[in-house]
Amino acid sequence: MTEFWWVYLWPVLWIVIKILLLVVPLLIGVAYLTYAERKVIGAMHLRRGPNVVGPYGLLQPIADGMKLFFKETIIPTGANKVVFLVAPMLTFSLALIAWAVIPVGNGLVIANINVGVLYLFAISSLGVYGILMAGWSSNSKYAFLGGLRSAAQMVSYEVSMGFIIITVLLVAGSLNLSDIVRAQQETIWFVVPLFPMAIIFFITTLAETNRHPFDMPEAESELVSGYNVEYSAMTFALFFLGEYANMILMAGMTTILFLGGWLPILDVAPFNWIPGPIWFALKMAFVLFIFLWVRATFPRYRYDQVMRLGWKVFLPISLAAVVIVGGIVVTFDINPLGR
Amino acid sequence: MIIQTLAFYLFSIITIVAAVMVISARNPVHSVLFLILAFFNSAGLFVLLGAEFLAMVMVVVYVGAVAVLFMFVVMMLDVNIAELRQGFLQYLPLGGIVGLVLLMELAVVAGGFVISPEVSERFAAPIPVPSDIANTEALGNIIYTKYVYFFQAAGIILLVAMIGAIVLTHRSREGTRKQRISNQVNRRPEDTIEIKKVSTGSGI
């Protein structure tokens, strides 16, 4: 019996504990990101933002969650019921499973796989299905147009995002996310040598998460609310949470690839007392603040401008960057991990 | 070990069921969704084989790109199931013959399948799997050194196919209004706005 416990049950239980330790703070983070968004944009608009529920409005996200939870889920007539209900679940679970490979600290990762970057890229490329399925199954023209726009936009920006990730891989010499951070420990945060790429990467993550100024799939002035117009109650809440979880995920990716993951700003006394996960969270919070800042600052792009930016500006630049960075890496024999 | 075995049966059963559903689902969008499920689970099988790079590329390329385009096209079809079933009996004999021929050909190929002596020798003394070289590194080493010409040739074929597709589908339409971004960027306030001093009561 003890053998059965230690060999079979304990490893499974240990994985479940690790997943809970990651997912629970993540969900709290998602809830408070919505609060932060309303507060930050409120401050930028010279408003107060939510301030009624609880001290400083801190209980607002929980109140919103309860409200959505107790509302009725309405399924439109003519909707394709199964696909309609699966779409929000897919969006939300994809936003969560990507976290399996994110190292939040030195060695603090659920699955330390060799192809971590590719895994992240693969999972984020699946995100388009939730939106496509929602758009198609709603049986509504606005939702459908939103779904189509989203598909075209995410496929276009994925291409240049992939090329930018390749430049990081070339410099780091590894596809393992922990190794990419260690390579930055040996040298310097990749945002310095790959500066323009980091900016383009951030912009493509805006487009991938359908955030402002690329929120074409939602575009409330043209498409009411785009792909999620027919959703209500928990199905809508899952889309909403999925979008914010995706934002946090993309902020995490930017942090790992360019901002040195769990590394402190300087490896000297007061900074390296703070544990790695806190540094990781602080850097993500910084990137997320820029997400919100951009939303409060820029007007929405027109659809053809989105496509032009993706295919005619970012794709040539990132393609050229792969060639140039590759050439530099070979010429100067850059190999930070010494392999 | 037992978890891997269970995972193998899970992935393979879902792959087979999804593949059957691809051809039996009434609605083409459902077919594409089942196709995606089949792709995804076969990627899981690749992971169990230790080919993690292939698994991820499978998801990125097939699920993330190819199937999205399928879905894009299929979603826009105006499917009428009753209409689809109308000509079923009429096309049955022809379709059945084509299917039968394909099945025969598959049987011939599978029946004549022989493992080359060079490879079967290796079964006896398999090359040890190097544990210190990651999958991606091993593939990169072999593709970019030993098979670099084949790799480049494959790239050129893809390039030609891409250019061909663009040439075939591109047509220049007359009378469309195009956005010239350079004109828009080069536009200066001085060229378009004229500021005038308006004295009260007289107008411009």
Mean pLDDT of chain B: 83
List the secondary-structure elements of chain A in sequence, H or E: HHHHHHHHHHHH
What is the H-and-E element order of chain B? Answer: HHHHHHHHHH
Radius of gyration of chain B: 29 Å
Task: Report the structural category of chain B.
Answer: mainly alpha
Regarding quaternary structure, how should these chains be classified? heterodimer
Low-confidence stretches of chain B: none
- The number of domains of chain A is 2
What is the overall shape of chain A?
globular
CA radius of gyration of chain A: 21 Å
The CATH class of the domain at 1-79 in chain B: Mainly Alpha
The CA-CA distance between the termini of chain B, in Å, is 89 Å
Uncertain runs of chain A are: none
Helix content of chain B: over 70%
Largest sheet: number of strands, sense, barrel closure of chain A? none
Average of per-residue pLDDT values of chain A: 86
CATH topology of the domain at 1-79 in chain B, what is it called? Answer: Four Helix Bundle (Hemerythrin (Met), subunit A)
Secondary-structure blueprint of this entry?
The complex is a heterodimer of chains A (339) and B (204).
Chain A: H1 2-44, H2 60-70, H3 81-97, H4 116-137, H5 141-172, H6 177-186, H7 195-208, H8 220-223, H9 233-258, H10 269-273, H11 276-297, H12 303-331
Helix pairs in contact in A: 1-2, 1-9, 1-11, 2-9, 3-4, 3-9, 4-5, 5-7, 5-12, 7-9, 9-11
Chain B: H1 2-24, H2 28-49, H3 52-75, H4 81-86, H5 88-111, H6 117-124, H7 135-146, H8 148-169, H9 181-186, H10 189-192
Description:
The complex is a heterodimer of chains A (339) and B (204). With 339 residues, chain A is an all-alpha fold. Chain A folds into 2 domains: 21-70, no CATH class; 78-332, no CATH class. Chain A contains 12 helices and no strands. Chain A has helices spanning 2-44, 60-70, 81-97, 116-137, 141-172, 177-186, 195-208, 220-223, 233-258, 269-273, 276-297, 303-331. The radius of gyration of chain A is 21 Å and the shape is globular. Chain B has 204 residues and is mostly helical. Among the domains of chain B are: 1-79, NADH-ubiquinone/plastoquinone oxidoreductase chain 6, subunit NuoJ (Four Helix Bundle (Hemerythrin (Met), subunit A)); 127-172. Helices cover 74% and strands 0% of the residues of chain B. Chain B has helices spanning 2-24, 28-49, 52-75, 81-86, 88-111, 117-124, 135-146, 148-169, 181-186, 189-192. Chain B starts with a helix and ends in a 12-residue tail after the last helix. The model of chain B has no long low-confidence stretch (mean pLDDT 83).
